Amino acid sequence: MFAQVKFEAKVSKNRLGVNERLRIDFEMNQDGDNFNPPDFSDFRVVGGPNQSVSNSWINGVRSYHKTYSYFLAPKQQGNFTISQASISIDGETYKTTPIKITVTSAIDIPKDPNDPDYLAEETVHLVAEVSKTNPYLNEAITVVYKLYVSPSTGVEDSREISSPRYNDFWSQNIDSQGQRVQVGTFNGEEYRFLVWRKTVLYPQKTGKLDIEPLSIDVTVIVPTNRRDIFGNVLTKKIKRTITAGNKTINVRPLPETGKPIDFTGAVGNFDFKVSTTKTQLDASESLQATVEVTGNGNLKLFNVPKLTLPSSLEVYEPEHNENVKTDLAGMQGRIADTYTIVPQYKGKYPIPSISFSYFDPKTETYKTLNSSEIVIDVLEGPASGSVANANSGSIKQQVVLNKDQFAFIKTQTNFSSTTSSYFFKTPLFWSALLLPFLAIPLAIVIRRKKADRDADVYGNRIRMADKLAKKYLSNAKKALGKKEEFYIAMEKALHNYLKAKLHIETSDLSKDKITELLLERGVETATMTDFNNIMLNCDLARYTPITAVTMQEDYEKAAKTISLIDKQAR
Q1: Are 219 and 155 in contact (CB under 8 A)?
Q2: Last residue of a domain, one of 80, 104, 128
């Protein structure tokens, strides 16, 4: 015979410090189904659920006891309520009573060097090392996350549970796969450490900016004060969540004193030049002029100076090229705009000197570089304006009549037939006669189709958006199958589309700014989320194994998202 059903919740304490742990047990005296625990929204589950069951018969009376146990860590100070748990027993639903918990500030916990929980807390640490805490705007800084482990303990089953979002920064993760465990010191003691993550950041705003904490879950293997029958120390596995903590940096604005008029936001150390593929050629031949910036700095976050050319030279839109790699020293490499130039007339055409200014954070000064003047010598071709004036300067001559001026006219002739058959009533004659009448219905149909297509405003926007997506993603499509080249081309295409669509400069391409502008233009949240996910994929995909199928899917997703933004944006 069963006793009355009991289902209740018990806690180890109702008042605890924010640095302590809480145990809660859900006990029942009969087995049940569909156990639903509370959501524990104000706590972090660091252990459980653990289940224990005891079943015995004493003097013919059955005794049954079942418990679900959880270990909780409070997220913050305050008064909280652990809501009801429920379970179904014999078709009836039973619920526990809510329990109130008070979480105070951190308290001093007695340090027992043999306590496994204390050892797990004191021997494993996650540290964020920031290279510079007071950088200039757009100056590169690095954040290196290191996991320190004492030689007396070990870790396993480590996984990242909370990643920094780096708001107000341009960021790129550096590949840290294959890192080996190294030996170093932490708080003056010898530790082993592993570089967990390396990230390069370029601040896009001035003032105090927060770097969100990185958190990971680990299972710590610690020794206990117990030994087995052979005298070996027994170990215990304890699950812990460790965090690198929040970091704050103070971003300084670039000085206004001495700022050049042509400064566009370049920060670093650069070289600058303008070059051409040839300086002598004939008219209607082509040459390429390249405006190039090389060096170390925020290469992807500013525009190359525009080339100024004489109006008599036919110039095509420049092709932008980037060969930039990012490591712990920041971005380094080359960016360039290449112009195709076609001279039309003979002559000498100067390409005047242009300037490029940047801020050097090491010397804390602005520097300006000037290109050399280049003269294009067009050797062969029409002289400018000579064709138009060829007849305007000629001297009119008086016409002198000659008495034999009509002598060449023949006064007698013999006519003869030039054809051997008549064109009238031939098949060609009838075809030429009836063809215009047959073309009239076809022209009407075509005209109606065109009118329907012109009236389809939404359809036209779709077609224009699809055409636009193919235009911007053409280079990425060519690079399908080449992972690094493909994702660099796609990231560049997405940036160029946003700059053209939203009329913003490269320095404004932050996630928050893009989100704000797209929302103002009526772009749906789902579309915006897809766009941000694609940008994130471009960043992460370079450092993870990617197949050709995945690249094709990312290409199609990018084309679809560009089309949606162009259709939705007002």
Answers
A1: yes
A2: 104
